[in-house]
């Protein structure tokens, strides 16, 4: 992330030097004058790439007057790639990215405000809670189209042996019940050591922020003047405290998993070392692909906080978005393409390809996504309660996350510091960071 | 005449000869030293080879085996499925051809530019030469992220964005300082007396460079060429930012298409594709290795 700061600095320097004179707009036209729009897609799974390419081909057949060129991007370094392209005036016209990234690019004037550009039908397809994920600073900079909640992926055999009744989306466990069950499933000692849960916390900040909503907190609050205030009251810290208890006191979660990514925990899960994994919905694909034959797994809704708004079901999420570059010469056509990609049946295809949830209200109810197989119906039920992550639209979030929150949370989860110390770091140091970003 | 001799002129006391270790002990010590050297070398080899061996092992494992909690060195059920998937999903061969063209051209051009420059900087010492050497050192201090945006703008004005020649230009510029630095040290090792002898025989500067210096530089040229090629072959960020058209993308960029958000990755196909990506570098090295070692051992500059 130091790299991101450096590049941002370099971009600012270049901009200050009057580089904007070089900007000449995107999009190109072929010999016949038909505009061709570049669509940077970050789809990476085979089915997802195929679905995206098929939709682009479909658009090109139906719209000979505006052609779209599929450009394969990568989640690696996408921020740096886009920043360089924006500064150099050669950015793709239509951009697939993540909600968190839009804050910098939208505030920096690199993205077109889609408020008046999107076809009216698109607005009705996606619920207002999802629109909040792409809207900030008075503008709409991205159309949220795919999202993924956290779910519990559990070893059904182990839960069955312990006589534990499985929850459903209507009646999820509370966090308190979950703690008890994780303790019950844990077994210490030797080769048969088992943990009720493993918390992969390679990105501790986004997990903590997004799941603090389930206990009625949010950690990052919007001030009246538009700035950001960090708070760590009881509701804000309840989730982090629970993880810490599981790792440090109950020993129902291994400390060794705290540094892992979701995929790293799967071998231990398949070996019966961890009974449950809180993972993003799309991890079901890896589980399905890698699980040993006859391994019995199930997708459960994430536990909820008692007494929290929306019954504790509201998780924060930073969705995948589609945006239009400010320099695009054919913004209306680019917005029309986004409208095409977010048609209900297309959203369903894209969601299936990525094993994620669509944002569209009707798409979430599509029979192919509400099937009981492979946890789809549970995922869609949980996804219906998703709200914008507290991090979205917060200028200064990347710096706070990298320099303050990540190290502080890692120390807290590992037991190196206590709650007071965590609060001091997150709040005092954090507010200093956010104050610098107040315009 | 005084018979007294100053102390400083007195004969220094003869050093007491240290008792020589017995031959058997000496042999033992030598063997122990040699064993230690081999042990250290082995550790270093393991350190170097481990990632490559693990890559090979991963490339031949099925998704189920990759999800096993007990990883094994040898795949239990070796499969070529990852290679099939990698080749089916991404245009690896086309990307490899792009990388080969770009890296090959960049290596050849940077060495062609650097040879006369390095010769001039070594043989014509002066303010310009010193400034040039300083420039080489300073240029190494700028991180890539600081130069990428200005570079992008320059290339855009030259209409070299999204073009392989544009990427070659960038790689030549990016590798040139280090290539120059490397070649300078090789040029310094060529005795001036050989060039003077050539001059006496009537050779001009160019002829001396071509007929005397270049043959002696051969091992250095090969090493430098390899360095420039491998640097360009492995480079990722310039290629990612500068090339938009899928058909022009290089191998390093294509490899990232097997990775997703938050560290998720399609490990098997990624390992298979990475393994395929290392082959040209290894082949290039194998092809030139004989020349490299042969040149070093040829003793061309022995009196």
From TrEMBL, chain A:
It holds the Pfam family SBP_bac_1. The keyword Ribonucleoprotein does not apply. Keywords: Lipoprotein. InterPro entries: Bact_solute-bd_prot1 (IPR050490), SBP (IPR006059). Gene3D superfamilies: Periplasmic binding protein-like II (3.40.190.10). It comes from the Bacteria. This is Uncharacterized lipoprotein in oleD 5\\'region. The lineage of its organism: Bacteria, Bacillati, Actinomycetota, Actinomycetes, Kitasatosporales.
From TrEMBL, chain B:
GO terms for biological process: transmembrane transport. PROSITE patterns: ABC_TM1 (PS50928). Keywords: Cell membrane, Membrane, Transmembrane, Transmembrane helix, Transport. It is a multi-pass membrane protein. It is found in: Cell membrane. Residues 1-29 are annotated as: Disordered. Residues 1-13 have a biased composition (Low complexity). The keyword Transmembrane applies. InterPro entries: BP-dep_ABC_trans_perm, MetI-like, MetI-like_sf. The chain crosses the membrane at residues 38-56, 100-122, 134-154, 166-183, 212-233, 267-288. It comes from the Bacteria. GO terms for cellular component: plasma membrane. Residues 96-288 form the ABC transmembrane type-1 domain. Belongs to the binding-protein-dependent transport system permease family. PANTHER family: INNER MEMBRANE ABC TRANSPORTER PERMEASE PROTEIN YCJP, MALTOSE TRANSPORT SYSTEM PERMEASE-RELATED. This is Carbohydrate ABC transporter membrane protein 2, CUT1 family. It comes from Actinacidiphila cocklensis.
């Amino acid at each position: 992330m130091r790299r991101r700061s450096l590049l941002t600095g370099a971009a600012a320097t270049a901009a200050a030097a009057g580089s904007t004179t070089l900007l000449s707009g995107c999009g190109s036209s072929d010999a016949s004058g038909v505009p061709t729009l570049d669509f940077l897609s970050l789809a990476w799974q085979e089915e997802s790439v195929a679905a995206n390419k098929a939709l682009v081909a479909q658009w090109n057949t139906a719209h000979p007057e505006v052609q779209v060129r599929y450009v394969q991007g990568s989640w690696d370094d996408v921020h740096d790639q886009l920043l360089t392209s924006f500064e150099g005036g050669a950015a793709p016209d239509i951009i697939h990215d993540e909600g968190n990234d839009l804050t910098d690019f939208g505030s920096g004037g690199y993205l077109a405000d889609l408020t008046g550009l999107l076809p009216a039908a698109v607005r009705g397809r996606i619920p207002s809670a999802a629109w909040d994920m792409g809207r900030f600073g008075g503008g709409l900079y991205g159309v949220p189209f795919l999202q993924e909640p956290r779910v519990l992926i559990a070893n059904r055999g182990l839960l069955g042996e312990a006589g534990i009744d499985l929850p459903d989306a209507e009646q999820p466990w509370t966090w308190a019940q979950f703690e008890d069950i994780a303790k019950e499933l844990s077994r210490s000692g030797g080769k048969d050591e088992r943990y009720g849960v493993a918390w992969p916390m390679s990105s501790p900040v986004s997990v903590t922020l997004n799941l603090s909503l389930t206990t009625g907190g949010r950690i990052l609050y919007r001030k009246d003047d538009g700035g950001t205030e960090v708070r760590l009251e009881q509701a804000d810290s309840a989730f982090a405290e629970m993880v810490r208890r599981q790792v440090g006191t109950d020993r129902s979660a291994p400390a060794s998993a705290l540094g892992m990514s979701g995929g790293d925990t799967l071998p231990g899960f398949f070996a019966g070392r961890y009974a449950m994994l809180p993972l993003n919905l799309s991890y079901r694909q890896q589980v399905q692909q890698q699980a040993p034959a006859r391994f019995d797994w199930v997708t459960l809704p994430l536990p909820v906080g008692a007494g929290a708004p929306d019954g504790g079901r509201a998780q924060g999420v930073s969705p995948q978005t589609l945006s239009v570059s400010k320099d695009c010469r054919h913004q209306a056509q680019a917005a029309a393409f986004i409208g095409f990609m977010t048609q209900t049946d297309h959203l369903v295809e894209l969601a299936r390809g990525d094993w994620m949830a669509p944002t569209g209200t009707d798409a979430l109810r599509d029979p192919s996504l509400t099937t009981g197989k492979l946890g789809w119906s549970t995922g869609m039920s949980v996804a219906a309660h998703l709200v914008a992550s507290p991090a979205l639209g917060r200028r200064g979030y990347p710096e706070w996350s990298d320099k303050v929150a990540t190290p502080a949370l890692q120390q807290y989860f590992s037991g190196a510091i206590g709650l007071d110390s965590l609060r001091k770091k997150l709040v005092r140091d954090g507010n200093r960071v956010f104050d610098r970003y107040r315009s | 005449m005084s018979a007294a001799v100053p102390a400083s002129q007195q004969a220094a006391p003869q050093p007491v000869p240290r008792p020589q270790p017995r031959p058997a002990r000496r042999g033992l010590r030598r063997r122990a030293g040699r064993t230690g050297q081999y042990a250290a070398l082995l550790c270093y080899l393991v350190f170097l080879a481990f990632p490559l061996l693990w890559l090979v092992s991963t490339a031949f494992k099925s998704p189920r085996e990759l999800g096993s909690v007990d990883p094994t060195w040898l795949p239990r059920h070796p499969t070529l499925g990852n290679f099939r998937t990698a080749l089916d999903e991404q245009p690896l061969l086309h990307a490899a051809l792009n990388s080969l063209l770009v890296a090959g051209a960049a290596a050849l051009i940077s060495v062609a530019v650097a040879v006369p420059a390095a010769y001039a900087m070594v043989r014509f010492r002066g303010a310009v030469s010193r400034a040039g050497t300083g420039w080489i050192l300073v240029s190494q201090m700028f991180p890539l992220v600081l130069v990428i945006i200005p570079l992008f703008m320059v290339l855009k004005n030259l209409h070299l964005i999204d073009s392989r020649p544009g990427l070659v230009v960038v790689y030549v510029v990016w590798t040139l300082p280090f290539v120059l630095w490397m070649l300078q040290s090789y040029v310094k090792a060529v005795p001036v007396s050989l060039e003077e002898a050539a001059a006496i025989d009537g050779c001009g500067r160019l002829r001396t460079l071509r007929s005397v210096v270049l043959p002696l530089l051969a091992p250095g040229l090969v090493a430098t060429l390899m360095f420039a090629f491998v640097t360009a072959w492995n480079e990722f960020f310039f290629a990612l930012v500068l090339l938009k058209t899928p058909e022009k993308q290089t191998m390093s960029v294509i490899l990232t298409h097997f990775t997703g958000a938050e560290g998720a990755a399609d490990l098997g196909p990624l390992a298979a594709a990475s393994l395929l990506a290392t082959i040209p570098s290894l082949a290039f090295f194998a092809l030139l290795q004989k020349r490299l070692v042969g040149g070093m051992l040829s003793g061309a500059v022995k009196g």
